[in-house]
Design a protein that fits this description.
By secondary structure, this protein is α/β, with parallel strands linked by helices. It is built from ten helices and 14 strands. It has helices spanning 2-12, 46-58, 69-77, 92-95, 118-121, 141-149, 161-169, 180-186, 216-232, 234-242; strands at residues 23-28, 31-32, 36-39, 42-44, 61-66, 83-89, 99-100, 105-107, 109-114, 133-136, 154-157, 175-179, 195-197, 205-211. Strands 1, 5, 6, 7, 8 and 14 form a six-stranded mixed sheet that branches. It has a five-stranded mixed sheet with strand order 11-10-12-9-13, with helices on both faces.
Length: 251
């Protein structure tokens, strides 16, 4: 209740005219806590709260459309959704196919380790040591970073973070490299209390929202909404609510 009152007050005085009255269909995969996840049939996290805040500013009703991640861009291209808010980082390859809003959050690849490794692998340079065993998820920015920069490491591929966490516990790997939200999630997951993140980003990436390549008008509306969210504190409020560690907002 307090959150709803707080956000309502933030947007009560300033409303930006919407591109078109009606519904803003927001696509997300709802499988990436704390950015977006499903619990008891409802979708929670940073991105859903961002979407609702943007909807208030644009005076539009927000409809969250849950899709597998790989189906989001085709749905956008087909016009089934208006915008993707699903923790997508900006890359050169994606810029060729998508139009991004201004970024709202800086993230990066962070090492995660078992607490039994703190004495030997907690220094930032440990990941560059010869023979270090590093786990990554295939086809991610973490995997690309490791393949390009960790020539002395032994790389092992895991399909998802949970499998990699099991690999850390079984001493199959020394470090697991994944992006910041996975590390942030550890702080809210008692079942993973034996794991710890170094919270030292090895890469610099930013998250933003995606619209169709030719939809400059909606991009402009999203950027204006984001500017207001920064100015009135609602963006920082949302981030602080879901991310229990120190974070950096992209400007």
């Amino acid at each position: 209740m307090f959150r709803q009152i707080f956000l309502s007050l933030l947007f009560a005085l300033v409303v930006i005219p919407a591109q078109a009255a009606g519904v803003l269909k927001v696509g997300l995969s709802a499988d990436y806590p704390p950015l977006h996840f499903k619990q008891d049939g409802k979708i929670y996290g940073v991105e859903p709260d961002n979407a609702r805040a943007v909807g208030k500013i644009l005076n539009m009703r927000v409809e969250l459309v849950e899709l597998p991640f790989e189906e989001l861009l085709p749905a956008l291209d087909a016009g089934d959704i208006d915008v993707i808010m699903s923790g997508i980082s900006i890359t050169d390859a994606r810029l060729e196919k998508m139009r991004f809003s201004e970024p709202y959050l800086k993230v990066g690849q962070m090492p995660i380790l078992h607490q039994s490794k703190l004495g030997t692998h907690s220094q930032p340079w440990a990941i560059y040591r010869e023979g270090v065993r590093v786990g990554v998820e295939p086809y991610t920015t973490g995997a690309r970073f490791a393949e390009a920069n960790l020539e002395n490491a032994e790389l092992k591929y895991f399909d998802n973070p949970d499998a990699a966490f099991d690999g850390l516990r079984a001493d199959e790997i020394d470090l697991y490299l994944h992006d910041a939200p996975t590390s942030w999630q550890l702080a809210n997951a008692p079942e993973n209390g034996d794991l710890i993140s170094l919270y030292t980003p090895l890469t610099e990436e930013v998250l933003a929202w995606v619209v169709q390549k030719d939809n400059a008008a909606l991009e402009q509306e999203l950027n204006r909404a984001l500017e207001l969210m920064r100015a009135n504190g609602s963006l920082q409020y949302i981030l602080n609510r879901w991310i229990p560690v120190s974070i950096e907002v992209a400007n």
